[in-house]
Amino acid sequence: MASLVMPAPTPSSSSSLSSLSSSSSAASPAPLFPGSSCSLGRRSVSQPFHSLNVKCEIAEPMNGKPCVPIINDQILPKFLQSRRLESAVKKSETKLKIFSGTANTVLSQEIAWYMGLNLGKINIKRFADGEIYVQLQESVRGCDVFLVQSTCPPANENLMELLVMIDACRRASAKNITAVIPYFGYARADRKTHGRESIGAKLVANLITEAGADRVLACDLHSGQSMGYFDIPVDHVYCQVGAEVSSNVYADVMCHAYAAFVFCPQPVILDYLASKKISTSDLVVVSPDVGGVARARAFAKKLSDAPLAIVDKRRHGHNVAEVMNLIGDVKGKVAVMVDDMIDTAGTIAKGAALLHEEGAREVYACSTHAVFSPPAVERLSSGLFQEVIVTNTIPAMEKNYFPQLTVLSVANLLGETIWRVYDDCSVSSIFL
Q: What is one process in the GO biological process aspect for this record (predicted)?
């Protein structure tokens, strides 16, 4: 499915958010794969898999400065015409409820809009001493509740808020509680690299479990073993690597509607990068460190089995990296660097500098989580990168905008995953 690329900011952007959850008119579907220009209508809860509205149309992805999009029934940007319900789901027909924390309210609104639902009413506030207060303002008894909250900076505040939200839902007799965590903080503390260190990822997993969550839905975890830290089911949503079918086959099947099941959203970064139409003979996928080789290899496989290069580095401290060597050939090629997150951008910036020294024609940076701790923006906007492609698992702040930045929305992907969890359908089939 076509990724959402947020447009240039407008003064009316923030005021238009209020109309987001109440909007109920049908929108035409967005392309699922840019190369195929195919789209697929989102089914309703009671609609069978084989009675889907399939339509083909040509749409080009947009690139520009990210901001909060304008969403209402009169002014609907073309790239926001996603696979929305033809009519909003009636509240009496579903026991699914979505609540948003304060970490990423825009993404939560987009997810609810995609699903044809309104966000649940919730009151979240801070007391004068900093304590967090949460009150659900509608009944969730016997409901499947999905709490959307990234544990992004300020990580401790947002994590505590999530825990209190889970506790409020548990005490309100929710049937199932799913913590939707687009960005899972503390994921890098997944093992002991030195003596007397804590394993923060396991600790946070225990806190979420003990608070009362029945399931966790997370995007592009830093390492796969983090799923094993939870004693509850974890649905791992991959925002970078897509399905195991070629775009030509995908387009043919979708446009003729031969399939009797739901075709799922293509992971957004791969989908957007495929729209660049870079020649496979000119493309090389680069892992910025040895630890990301598996991720880069999977990404390269989806891009017509592109060649792989690896940046060898030595890390002397936290957030400090030194590039040592390049394994692979990048001379005269378009290099695509793939990582799960960009924090201070030290690793990826030094890697890009090395790629240019080795003769790379252009360098693209692709990352799911844009943490952007200082001095990340300065490094990323220094001219090393043709484009920096991230997603909105962490909200993009205006101070972090720069000309090369492209922000893609994971709302459709998360919305589809939530539907599948609620309908007891396969989630892994999205990525197979």
A: purine nucleotide biosynthetic process
